Amino acid sequence: MKPTMNVEFCGVEFKNPVLTASGTFGFGREYSSFYDLSELGGICIKGITPKKRIGNPPPRIAETPMGILNSVGLQNPGIDAFISEELPFLKQFDTRVIANISGNTVSEYCEMAEKISDSQVDLIEMNISCPNVKAGGMAFGTSSSMVFDVVSETKKYAKKPLVVKLSPNVTDITEIAVAAENAGASGLSLINTILGMRIDIKTKRPILHQNTGGLSGPAVLPIAIRMVYQVKKAVKIPLIGMGGISCGNDAVEMMLAGASLVSVGTACFSNPMAPIEVRDGIQKYLEDCKRSSVHDLCGGLIEY
Amino acid sequence: MIKDFSAQIKKISALSDTTFDFELFVGETAKEAAPGRFVSISCGDQRILRRPISICDASPSEGTIRIIFEIRGEGTKWLSEQKVGGILKVLGPVGNGFKLGGLCDLPALFVAGGIGTPPIYYAAKNTPGKNDLVAGFRNKSAVILEEDMLHIANAVMVCTDDGSYGIHGLVTTEVEKLLLKQQYGAIFACGPRAMLKATAELAEQYHIPCQVSLEERMGCSVGACLVCACAIKGKDGMEYKHVCKDGPVFDAKDVQF
Question: Domain spanning A7-53+77-196+214-296 has what CATH number?
Fold first, then answer.
């Protein structure tokens, strides 16, 4: 018998635990020519802001050992254009849609949470961890008191489950996680990218125009697993684990550490089929271990 | 439609110490090749990013495409070390190519710089008429495709920065001489940004439609990640379009150099 792959997360049913990570998948259109998006557990959209943002000047990407640095700077058409022009496309598919929202101020988060709650998205992911914008973004996500304030205010306007995306660029991620939980977050997603830098030694200039950017890809997988493991012990709300997952076994590790759902991001750049292969890999692992359900994985770590 | 597929290397020739000419068997996909479009090639399991490489020619009947690339870093070095018969992971064809149809009866002028020469050769080859081609290179050893270009263009001018071969000087100096002498219906250019900028300015000055093919560091190659941004003049001011999805070929007057 095939293992069951469906997962309930914050009261929302996902057909399988594999999502696409925000910022790596646009609004889904581009990858819909490679496979039926209904195969995915869910799609987390490119981060949206109250108004259109043009993003950062190029270069916006640099390669690193088993990873990349990016500094896109939240280029997006704005929440209204997303709801009117992109969301109807996504709703054609039988998959969950997670809206990633980013604001410069607490009131912007509240406005967006209110507006997006009235749309057909299934969950809201609150991005308080973008390393590539000057105002808002990571500035909110690196102080427990600010996390508490912005999440508790936004929660008042969110009529859909509110997942808070955590930054790894902090001394102790569990403090931030607990602050978000105490403020009423329905779930947490982690990790956003790790701040990094590369320099072109010929020109002596940073490769990225913004000098620094966010590191992602297989290089960050161990950090993401460690942080999911720590946060799982610190909070009761469910977790979405992400950071460097490129195959089923990586996802299984992330789930054993404590993630209920996993997101695949950078892996799509080298392999457009990566999210589907991750899903199939999880299923194969369950079959090989003769487990009946993907639920058996979450937090199934046997510690020393 | 962009596909992710395996392609076998049929032929390899080294055009110089750092420039390589590959023929790949891609089957039916060869029919979708067009001048200005490119493929994104996976350069080993240790590298996350694929390398975007322009298509230099295609033979739909044989199911092959030709690519020419220069070693720029570790990824292209890995690619240069592959052998005939080897299999490459290829995504493509990507992007919008040169618009070669609907040109007026006047000849077209093709302008190429360095590793921007392969797509210009492909474009010139597919444009009927007595077209001229100016191609610039760093030095004699960097000159590529001269023989091929001579077969498909009316006049071919090869320039080198150091004067070690052909005309000593910049391609744009030759472009201006040609524009003073003769009327052209369109200009097509691919090469370093400074060359494209100067060519675009000349095209504007002489009122000739001009298309340029841009390059930028790329992520997903399909338009999802938004990293390969290029500044384009929009209705409400400058906006960032993306080389992989909106380009790589743009109308020169829209590009904010």
Answer: 3.20.20.70
